[in-house]
Amino acid sequence: MLSEHSVDHLVLERGEVANSWRHERWDSLRLLTPNWQSRLPGWRYRGTDPDGFMTMAEVVELVAGFAAASSAPVRTHTTVTSVSADDGGYRVATDGGDIRCRSVVLASGAANIPRVPQLRQAVPPQIECFTAFDYRSPERLPRGGVLVVGASATGVQLADEIQRSGRAVMLAVGEHVRLPRSYRGRDVLWWMESSGVWSQRYDEVDDLERARGLPSPQLVGTPEHVTLDLNVLGAAGVEIVGRLAAIRDGRALFSGGLRNQFALADLKMDRLLDTFDAWAREHTSDVACRPPERFEPTRAPSAPRLSLDLRSGEIRSIVWATGFCPDYRWLKLPVLNRKGELRHDGGVVVDAPGVYAIGLPLLRRRKSTFIIGAEDDARDLVAHLTRYLATGRSG
Known about the structure:
Helix content: 10-25%
CATH superfamily of the largest domain: FAD/NAD(P)-binding domain
Largest sheet: 5 strands, parallel
Strand order of the largest sheet: 10-19-11-12-15
CATH topology of the largest domain: FAD/NAD(P)-binding domain
Shape: globular
Radius of gyration: 22 Å
């Protein structure tokens, strides 16, 4: 898009093109979005299975193909070590030398570092710990039971895969977003896009900070288009427990609020389905779909355990599926808040004229962190950036 506006630019990549997709995902991972939603500016999925879900190798092929077709000026194997202000512009220091520029786009995303709670430090030494960056397959875990902490998309997928390998799995569940894979005969993400929910702008969202911090929805992309929720996991033998609240004297303590967490997630899902139904009623002449449906409430265990002796041998490893956060240690600009989060207005970084961000949660729209959200956000930010370059004004 910058090329369309005749803006000279350079893309810096610390590894190969699509580096994180190549090296920072577990072996069996597939995209949560159907293939037909895998589209970038002037480039989209061209295979024979539009309703399928890409493997990581296929995602790498998509991104690398886009980079080649667009003749993107990518400098690979170049690590940025700092970005600082420099004489009305910016100095980007790399392991290959310094670059001076008038504008910078931070496209490093939101999943650079695993977000692991402090209580990790209290885990007994005989328990091996993994994050979603470390985990590759069940075979690489120690023998014995596994505690998966976190029930977002990552947590439920890993709990399912590890349980299918024959291991005993316990899943610690906190706040989560429940979604069916399909609704009324169509993929739920078709509904998100068609109904306009995914295109809702950041300045239209109530409590934006909270919305940006929500976990990813409980979805999995499989050839069978299955729903993977806590009812499915519980029926398969995964033990569901409450949020991991503390570890004291070698014992993991779980909260007793499972029923409330389940009720809240079910309520929010039903409200979203109501939104889809209301949209469908207005578009009955354009949309052919099945009648409205509702799903069984999440079943709470009759007596979930509230503690676990981590020294007993019942659990031999913990997988922390507790989310990710950006890494801004190299950003030497006054643009972070007290929590270390980037201060920005829809991707326009505050207090740093000419600096932009893309790929963060609900950056400009609800779909911002998905491949399908990149084009709309990029067009908005490129328009702002070119105005800034032409006028010198960030507003």
